[in-house]
Amino acid sequence: MKTKENVTVYHCDFCPKKLFVKSAMTRHEKKCSKNPINIRACFDCINCEEVIIKYERSPQTYPESELVKSKSFKCIKKNIFMFPPKLEHSQNGLPDYVEHRGEEIIQEKMPLNCEIQQSSSDSLNEIFGWNKTS
Fold first, then answer.
1. Burial class (CB in 10 A: 0-12, 13-18, 19+), 76
2. What's the pLDDT tens digit per position in 84-115?
3. Closest by alpha carbon to 48, among 114, 102, 125?
4. Which residues does 69 contact at the CB level (< 8 Å), separation at least 6?
5. Quick check: 57 and 70 in contact, CB under 8 A?
6. Which candidate, 8, 5, 6, 29, places its Cα nearest to that of 17?
7. In terms of Cα–Cα distance, which of 85, 73, 80, 83 is closest to 48?
8. The pLDDT of residue 11 is above 50
9. How far is it, in rounded angstroms, from Cα 38 to Cα 31?
10. Model pLDDT, residue 134
């Protein structure tokens, strides 16, 4: 067994991950799901539903462009399609063409805060009448 002394270990500020390369940790922290800038109001909202979309892979990274299925999100109240924060930080960027049920769609960033957000716990409180003042 080999042991190394005086090795620098980088720790993520948001999760227990440890890496030996500083640039890799910087990249990880940007995408980390525990990072507060990646926690969006939509993830806990009952108006947000997961949908399957198709997008075109770029011919720059693949020999031929092709439609690929992927998960995305749709706000039922606003009737908009949204991409998660992980895609914002993607090296490939956003795809040029995205479709849902055969129609081309435009995706927006998930908002950090939303004025119409209804968390699942709020809806349970309404259904069962919890936390109501008499």
1. exposed
2. 888 877 766 666 677 777 788 888 888 888 88
3. 114
4. 52, 53, 54
5. no
6. 29
7. 73
8. yes
9. 7
10. 44
Report the C-alpha gap between 110 and 41 in whole angstroms: 8
How far is the C-alpha of 55 from the C-alpha of 8, rounded, in Å?
41
Q: What is the pTM of this model?
A: 0.67
Determine the distance from the C-alpha atom of residue 79 to the mean position of all C-alpha atoms in its chain, rounded to a whole number.
Answer: 18
Dihedral angle of Cα 16, 30, 58, 55, to the nearest 10 degrees: 80
For the chain, give the DSSP string.
----SS---EE-SSSS-EES-HHHHHHHHHH-TTSGGG--GGGGBTTEEEEEEEEEPPTTTSSS--EEEEEEEEETTTTEEEE-HHHHT-SS-S-S-EEETTEE--EEEPPSS-TT--BHHHHHHHHHTTT---
What confidence tier does 10 reach under pLDDT thresholds 50, 70, 90? very high
Q: How far apart are CA 15 and CA 6, in angstroms?
A: 23
CB 107 within 8 A of CB 93: no
